[in-house]
Structures are given as C-alpha cells and as structure tokens.
Write a structure and sequence with these properties.
Shape: globular
Strand order of the largest sheet: 1-20-19-15-14-9-8
Number of strands: 21
Structural class: alpha+beta
Largest sheet: 7 strands, antiparallel
Strand content: 15-25%
Radius of gyration: 22 Å
Oligomer: single chain
Distance between the termini: 21 Å
Number of helices: 20
C-alpha cells in the first residue's frame, strides 16, 4: 500500500501499525480492553464483544445492553457472515392501536419507542459460534468497570452534559447517570453496580439471564407501568439472525454491508452512483467532491427512505436496486453545477452509536456496531437490573402503507451499519462511521478518501466532513468559507455543523505483508492500538 506521507509539522494522528492484531474504538479504555483480550489468546470476536460490552458501561449515552447490534464477521478463510441483532416491536404493537390513541408519531421518550433489545442475544450467539473464550472472561472488563468504577473522558463528558435532559424526563436513571443531579465532568469517577450484577448473570447464564427471569420481568414492568405494550413473551422469543451480506463494487474493490432493515444498501448505492464519476481526478476541487457526494447521497437516501424496511414485511431486491440500469438513471439526474431539490424526510435525527473494528493475529476481522439510538436511548431505566432502554421504535411510521409502518414483531429501519472492504474477494478492511443518519454517507466519504485520493485511513478520517440531509448541506467549520460560498452558488443551502459529523474507526490489512493499519477519529476520545 502506498499512501501520502502525513505532514508531521501539522497537528494530526499517525496510523497505528502492527502485525499481531489491531483494535480501533472511540474510547481508549475500550481499545485497550480489546487489545488485552487479543494478547491473552482471544480472537477478534472475543475482543469485539469485550470492547462493546465495556463501552456500554463507560459510554452509556452511546450504547449498552438495552440496545441493538449489527456485525460482520470475516474469517481469515471463508466467506463473511453478518448478524442482525436488532430488536422487534412488541406483539401488541398494532398500527391501528396507535392511531386510535390519536398519535401521529411515536415520541422518542415514550415506552412505545422501546423495541426489544437485541444486542445481548447477538453477542452471545457470536461468542458461541465464533469466539474462543467464555462469556465470563469476555465480559470481565465490563463487569470490573461497572463494579469498581471508571473515569469520564472529554468527549463523553461533552455529550453527557449536552443530553442530560433525556434522563431528567423519567428520573429513574438520574441517581446513576447524573450523580448529585448534574452531568459528570471530565475526570469524574462513576460506578454502576446494578449493571455489573446483570452482566455477571449474563456471563454465567448466557442470553437467558437477560431475556428471561428477573431482568426481563423488570424491563416489562417498567414499560407496562407507563402504558407500554411489551410483554415477557416478546423478550423470551427474541432472536438475532445470521444474514448474507450484500455488496457493491467500487474501484476494483468490494464493499460489504448488512442487508435491510439497516441502511447499508444506501452506502452501496452512493458508491455505485459515484463510480460513474472520476473521483480520483486531481483536478476536482473540494467543492466538486462535496457537491458530488451530496448529490449521490440525496439520490441514494430518497431510495432508502422509500424502500428500506424489515424485509420480512417489505422485501427489497438489492440486486435490482444496485444494478447499472437503476443506478444510471439516478446518476443521470445529477448536475455538476446545480444542487437537486431537497428530499422530504420523516425519520428521527440522532448521532449516538458505538463502533469497534478488530483484526486478530490470524487475520479474522470483526466490524461491530451497537446503539441505543438517541443519546441515553429512551431515557427509561430499569434500576434493579441497571438496564437503560433504547428508543429505536421512535423510527417507526404511523402512516398506513408506509414501508416502515409499525407492526407486531416488526423490526424498525436502522441507521447503524458496520462496513467491510474486500479486494479480489479477500477482506482487507473493517470500518464504521458513527453518526446516525450520516453513517451511509460517511462510509463513502471515508472510502473515497482511501480509494480515490490515496489517503491512509487515518488521513481520510481526519479530513473535514459534509452531509447533505433534510434540506441542508452541513459543513464542518474546518472547511474554508470560500468552499461554502461556491456550494451556495450551486444552490445548496449551506449550514455550519454545531458538533462533529460522526466518528470513524477502521483497521486496514495489507494481506501481502501481514501488516495492519488502524485509525480512530479525532472527533472522539478513542485510539487505535496494535497488539
């Protein structure tokens, strides 16, 4: 691999480099945990689960056992497999019931926004099928942090303070997450013994410790006390599913994603659209690149919003959507000089997720993402079990005929997507870009930097970001004003981001040399580390 050498006179990060394993996450303690699991003989699956379990303790606004999970596992030999660990709506969640209540949308802090948490089942299934260590050892770092305490890092403190109000609405989580009634500051030390006890039970008894018995009963009681529809059978019947990844070609590489109900197909569609432009042309200006990505994103997201839903309820022919005939029609509508009309958008906006990338010494790769949806999820907390519940159900529509209309046991549209890059059919990179609706566009922004511009993964992560969404083109303030002026001239409604766009982690494998390169976004607290 040949990349541009970074300028060591300019602030920035170097790639992490190693040859015996690598992990990249958005929190330094989480990365270190993954590396320690690898050093102790664990494989990539063990390390990824240990990492994300710990992050749910120490980064609780981003993820946790009350949320959902998607992952792609690429063994060193054999085909990649994907797991869909997203939860379903309760059996009683009938569209007519919601309409009879006079609701036009599902409030993001209501018990109706809580779908069955799918993460724990996905972790346990991945561990049993592909891990090399027991869950007792894999969950030990998370248990230790919950029981003995952890220290709050800078970006975590910023987000904690910004979204503390989501906990204050329901109050039950305030004693744990807002000690003394306020968000913890950088360096504060917290613990969470109730969550530690639940993790111990999962480590000892497996997924049944969460989906049956006292923990499940408290989750149901918490929701039912507020008028929710979830029952014990909704939890006991929860199962993650192995699914076949979908893919698209870009610049002699293959991009792999989980199929719907996630938005990975939108990332593939953006790639297919941009493949018709010479994004490697050095004559392209920054405004050109932002404009083309914006227009490809808008075209792909229109298709995404119209078509992507739980395939058990609304099947989607991915091959047809990604075919050259379909893509050429979308591409033909893009003008290089003028922005297209903004697309209507009727889903919640959020930015809160945790992603981990791990490669072990044997070349096994895991791309795993876990989320509560909004910051601190629904804000609903089961205090005896220490479970903070997601609000992914807020993304359901209450419009009859809508592809994402709520229905019994239906999975909602999901924004969280783990990515995998291959060349010649051989996996070479696991990557993810946190940031809610931004993720599909973010995947392509990172990949274009690497495949079109000759940047390494850290350099590509470091570049300023843009996002065309919900009628506006958002720019990070590190983009020059002259570029914003040019984009305005092309009829984009430009606005400046009030917080960073997403957060990238990636591990890139040079197969020929057996060398690994890791990147972690400066927009978060994390690091990439070699074993």
């Amino acid at each position: 691999m040949s990349w541009r050498q970074r300028d060591f006179m300019v602030p920035g990060r170097s790639l992490a480099v190693g040859d015996r394993g690598m992990a990249a996450t958005s929190h330094p303690a989480v990365t270190l945990t993954a590396v320690e699991i690898l050093r102790s003989g664990g494989n990539a699956v063990d390390a990824a689960i240990a990492a994300i379990a710990l992050q749910g303790v120490i980064d609780p606004h981003m993820t946790g056992i009350g949320g959902d999970c998607f992952a792609i596992y690429a063994p060193a030999s054999g085909k990649p497999v994907a797991i869909n660990g997203s939860g379903r709506a309760p059996l009683k969640a009938d569209l007519d019931w919601f309409r009879q209540q006079g609701l036009t949308s599902i409030p993001d802090d209501s018990p109706h926004a809580v779908t069955v948490p799918g993460a724990v089942d996905a972790w346990c299934r991945l561990s049993a099928d592909y891990g090399s260590k027991g869950m007792d050892e894999v969950l030990a770092p998370a248990i230790r942090a919950a029981e003995s305490g952890f220290v709050v890092t800078p970006r975590a403190a910023l987000d904690w303070a910004r979204y503390a109000g989501r906990l204050e609405r329901h109050r039950t989580g305030v004693p744990v997450y807002l000690p003394r009634g306020t968000a913890p500051v950088v360096g504060s030390k917290l613990n969470h013994p109730a969550l530690g006890a639940t993790l111990r039970r999962i480590a000892r008894e497996g997924r049944d410790a969460f989906y049956e018995g006292a923990v499940a009963e408290e989750i149901v009681a918490t929701l039912r006390s507020l008028g929710g529809l979830m029952e014990l059978e909704d939890l006991t019947s929860a199962r993650s599913d192995y699914v076949v990844p979908i893919s698209a070609d870009y610049r002699d590489h293959q991009i792999w994603q989980c199929p719907p109900n996630g938005q990975g197909i939108a990332a593939l569609l953006i790639a297919r659209i941009l493949a018709g432009f010479d994004m490697a042309d050095p004559a392209l200006s920054e405004a050109d690149r932002i404009h083309l990505l914006a227009e490809a994103t808008k075209a792909a997201y229109r298709q995404r919003d119209a078509l992507v839903a739980d395939p058990a309820f609304r099947p989607l022919d991915a091959d047809a959507l990604l075919s050259e005939r379909s893509v050429a029609a979308l591409r033909a509508c893009i003008s290089r000089e003028r922005a297209s009309a903004p697309a209507a958008f009727d889903m919640p906006v959020h930015r809160d997720t945790a992603y981990v990338a791990v490669v072990d010494r044997d070349g096994n790769m895991v791309s795993l993402i876990n989320s509560l949806f909004f910051a601190f999820g629904s804000g609903l907390y089961a205090p005896r079990s220490g479970v903070l519940l997601q609000n992914r159900g807020a993304g359901f529509s209450l419009v009859p005929g809508h592809p994402n209309a709520i229905a019994p046991r239906k999975r909602p549209f999901h924004t969280i997507i783990p990515g995998l890059l291959a060349k010649g059919g051989k996996p070479i990179m696991v990557f993810g870009v946190m940031g809610g609706q931004y993720q599909a566009a973010g995947h392509m922004q990172i990949l274009s930097g690497v495949l079109d511009r000759g940047l390494d993964v850290q350099q590509s992560s470091d570049t300023p970001r843009s996002f065309a969404f919900d009628g506006a083109l958002t720019l990070e303030p590190t983009i020059p004003a002259s570029v914003a002026d040019e984009l305005t001239r092309r009829c984009h409604r430009v606005i400046w981001a009030d917080e960073p766009l997403g957060g990238c982690q990636a591990v890139h494998l040079d197969v020929s040399r057996g060398v690994m390169f890791g990147a972690s976004d400066h927009r978060k607290d994390g690091i990439a580390l070699a074993v």
